[in-house]
TrEMBL record, chain A:
Binding site for Ni(2+): 68, 71, 440
Residues that, per the record, bind Mg(2+): 49, 393, 446
Keywords annotated in UniProt: Iron, Magnesium, Metal-binding, Nickel
GO-annotated molecular function: nickel cation binding
Classification via Pfam families: NiFeSe_Hases (PF00374)
Coiled coil regions, renumbered to chain: none
Binding residues annotated for Fe cation, in chain numbering: 71, 443
InterPro entries: Ni-dep_hyd_lsu (IPR001501), NiFe-Hase_large (IPR029014)
Taxonomic superkingdom: Bacteria
CC cofactor: Ni(2+); Fe cation
The protein's name: Ni/Fe hydrogenase subunit alpha
UniProtKB/TrEMBL annotation, chain B:
Domain of life: Bacteria
GO MF terms held by the record: iron-sulfur cluster binding; oxidoreductase activity
Name assigned to this protein: Oxidoreductase
SUPFAM superfamilies xrefs: HydA/Nqo6-like
Length: 464, 271
């Protein structure tokens, strides 16, 4: 039995590294109550918004992809949409379909990476994929194969899986022929089976009870599960009906503030905590998944997603708010992305031109897409020569930080209430709470020694 | 129940993967070696790889792969510690090898940058520069690229295991273009391309996709940058455009080769 829970103490996990970079955890506990839960992001600032100024309007896709090697396509396409919006260009038809195909590749690759390499070891009691492979080799191999098929899409369309070179304003430098896509389709048919098996595998995991009480924010698109475009839509916690707002008003609703402990800015949605990502997407758009993906979701126990127009709790559909179950939604999204990729390839006709022209003009534009980890917003202002005069990028992790901290607080409190008081138990709870949200792959992957100081002696700000 | 047991050599070399200021793309390249990953894990003991494992072991490390540039006061100290703990230290990518895209700050006013991004810049600890690992400690090998190439990474690891020098050619992207049978985008279409001065490694990706190389692997071993400038001008680039073209992902490396600073911040001391 651990010692009685009295007095103040501080729990620290000094190096979670990276949430879009690097992070640590800091919890303050007073007489058995969590009084403060912080995800300290100390990723060194890299100043993208500053040095984008003065660059040409053609540069944001390649430049901003270097913000994150884990979801470069999301950065490239949010940047393209924002600049195209500023310049009044519209990309549609087969070019838009190819963009969605590219994005499906990133979803498959990135979500599969999270499921197999980062999140599943938590449920199976392993440190990593390598040690997990000793007892679950077939699952690990299937995960690697599935991930590879996502990478194969990005490599074919983009040239390489990390920081693809073939994306440009208005479309692509070069579009593939139908024949070039054919081998991809063969591979994706195997991936469809792998994705189904993954859903079944993760559905068998043991999910602790938990509820995330943040408002859910995702893009919504007419008639399709939103990936590369859409209108910001909120499903509030509680009984309020869903609401949407125009993308150009994004920064009036999602406001960023800086907090002392973090180099990532903290966002709030209309003054409240919010969550983006898989859980939000499934709650807002789940009814628009394909019949196959919906069947998988039901089989995985996610229930029927609500119709967007129906008020939550009106007896029509379920909203999954359990962050542990996000792994199920990810697995369903991978299945959907594989199916969607196959559909796009089957309907593909090579467009006459690889891109539409995006002539520079003075103006401001907004672009948002659904990165694997959630809504990613870009804004640029351009002068008459197309030089960037202002840039603003709101990544999903910054938006989710408040909801993750609340989750941490709640889960650790639950642990303390159950008498789980040892450093090891609390550390494990913290790690899982963070990994549930996949804030960024490396952030969710490693934890150094968590320190519990008894009694509390340190100043509030403890550097790791 | 039988677990597959591959007999393992008693002393597998210990691998450490470390990150400084970066996007994680170069270490992800290692995780993207799906076909080789389990094999690599059998040859090397993965002692420290935060992106992949919660199992973290202290040094010494036989091979350290270092991603990212030195950009905070804490980095200065950590890079020395990692060097002291590592028998072989290899930098992976443009950030670790040339300061990366974030080295654009070296030619600007960092106070102003901070004020652009943060309402309370005083909360942020940062250095005025973003520098390569080799500016601080000796480096055994530098692998280029933003991101690095998977094949080259495997070559570096294989060479390390075999105790030989990595066979990474020092020539320009143009060579790879010829080998691939590409039509030259500059000669055929007048597309500005940095291929003649950029280090090979990507297999001439951009020209294969019909665009000019934008230099993400940094300068090649021997470059004649002055000879390329009139061609870039002929193809429609102004001096400002050329400045930005060269000064993006490998800004410090191209600056060193060109012997000049980015046109946009003339007169600034790069520190
Ligand atoms: S070199 Fe490029 S890909 Fe590698 S870490 Fe730096 S920004 Fe990312
Ligand atoms: S061609 Fe140049 S810019 Fe393109 S991937 Fe290769 S080195 Fe990088």
């Amino acid at each position: 039995m651990s010692e009685p829970v009295t007095g103040s103490r501080v729990l620290r996990v000094p190096a979670l590294t990276r949430v879009e970079g690097e992070a640590a955890l800091h919890l303050r506990i007073h007489d058995g109550t969590v009084t403060e839960a912080r995800l300290d992001i100390y990723e060194p600032p890299r100043f993208f918004e500053a040095f984008l100024r003065g660059r040409a309007h053609t540069e944001p896709p390649d430049l901003t992809s270097r913000i994150c090697g884990i979801c470069p396509v999301a950065y490239q396409l949010s940047a393209c949409r924002a600049v195209e919006n500023a310049c009044g260009a519209v990309v549609d038809g087969q070019l838009a379909a190819l963009r969605r195909l590219l994005y499906c590749g990133e979803w498959i690759e990135s979500q599969t990476l999270h499921i197999h390499l980062l999140h599943a070891p938590d449920f199976l009691g392993h440190d990593d994929m390598i040690s997990m492979s000793r007892s679950h080799l077939a699952h690990v191999e299937r995960g690697l194969r599935l991930k590879q098929s996502g990478n194969a899409i990005v490599e074919l369309l983009g040239g390489r899986a990390i920081h693809p070179v073939n994306v440009r304003l208005g479309g692509f430098h070069r579009t593939p022929t139908r024949a070039e896509l054919r081998p991809l389709a063969e591979r994706l048919r195997t991936a469809l089976d792998d994705a189904w098996d993954t859903v079944r595998w993760v559905a068998g995991f043991d999910f602790p009870d938990a509820e995330c009480t943040a408002d859910l924010l995702a893009l919504a698109e007419t008639g399709t599960y939103a990936i590369e475009s859409g209108v910001p839509t909120v499903l509030p916690y509680g009984d309020e009906p869903p609401r949407s707002f125009p993308l150009r008003d994004f920064r009036d609703h999602v406001t960023e503030e800086q907090v002392p402990h973090s180099t990532a800015l903290h966002s709030r949605l209309d003054g409240r905590r919010h969550l983006t990502g898989s859980l939000a997407r499934y709650a807002v758009n789940g009814h628009l998944l394909s019949p196959l993906a919906l069947a998988a979701a039901r089989e995985a126990g996610l229930g029927d997603p609500p119709l967007r127009s129906a008020a939550p709790g009106a007896g029509r559909g379920e909203v999954c708010r359990n962050p542990y179950r996000s792994i199920l939604v990810r697995a369903v999204e991978v299945l959907y992305a594989v199916e969607e990729a196959l559909r796009i390839i089957a309907e593909y006709e090579r467009p006459a031109h690889p891109h539409v022209e995006v002539p520079a003009r003075a103006g401001a534009g907004h672009g948002a897409t659904e990165a694997p980890r959630g809504l990613l917003y870009h804004h640029y202002a351009l002068d008459g020569q197309g030089r960037i005069t202002d840039a603003c990028i709101v990544p999903p992790t910054a938006q989710n930080q408040g909801a993750i901290e609340e989750d941490l607080r709640r889960l650790v409190q639950g642990g303390l209430d159950r008498g789980e008081d040892s450093e090891a138990e609390l550390t494990r709870l913290c790690e899982r709470a963070v990994r549930n949200h996949d804030p960024c792959i490396s952030c969710s992957a490693h934890f150094l020694d968590l320190k519990i100081e008894r009694p509390f002696r340190q100043p509030w700000r403890v550097r790791c | 129940m039988s677990t597959p047991t591959t007999p393992q050599p008693p002393h597998r070399p210990r691998l450490g993967v470390f990150k400084f200021a970066s996007c994680d793309g170069c270490q992800l390249t290692l995780l993207n070696c799906e076909d080789e990953l389990i094999g690599i894990a059998g040859e090397l003991e993965i002692a420290h790889f935060l992106e992949a494992s919660s199992d973290i072991a202290p040094g010494p490390y036989d091979l350290a792969l270092v991603e990212g540039s030195v950009s905070t006061p804490e980095h200065l100290e950590r890079v020395r510690r990692i060097r002291a703990d590592s028998r072989h230290l290899v930098t992976i990518g443009a950030c670790a090898t040339a300061g990366g895209v974030q080295a654009l700050r070296n030619y600007a006013d960092v106070e102003e940058y901070l004020a652009t991004v943060y309402a309370r810049p005083d909360y942020i600890e940062t250095l005025a520069t973003s520098t390569p690992i080799s500016a601080h400690v000796p480096v055994d090998f530098e692998l280029r690229g933003c991101p690095i190439d998977r094949g080259q990474l495997i070559e570096v690891i294989t060479a390390f295991l075999a105790g030989r020098k990595p066979g990474i050619p020092n020539h320009a992207v143009c060579f790879a273009c010829k080998r691939r049978g590409n039509v030259c985008v500059t000669v055929a279409h007048g597309t500005p391309c940095l291929g003649p001065v950029t280090h090979a490694g990507c297999g001439a990706l951009c020209p294969t996709y019909g665009r000019g190389c934008y230099g993400c692997f940094g300068p090649a071993g021997t470059t004649n940058l002055p000879a390329l400038l009139p061609i870039l001008r002929r193809d429609g680039m102004g001096d400002d455009d050329i400045g930005r073209f060269l000064h993006t992902f490998n800004v410090t490396a191209f600056t060193a080769v060109a012997g000049q600073e980015p046109g946009t911040t003339e007169g600034e001391d790069p520190v």
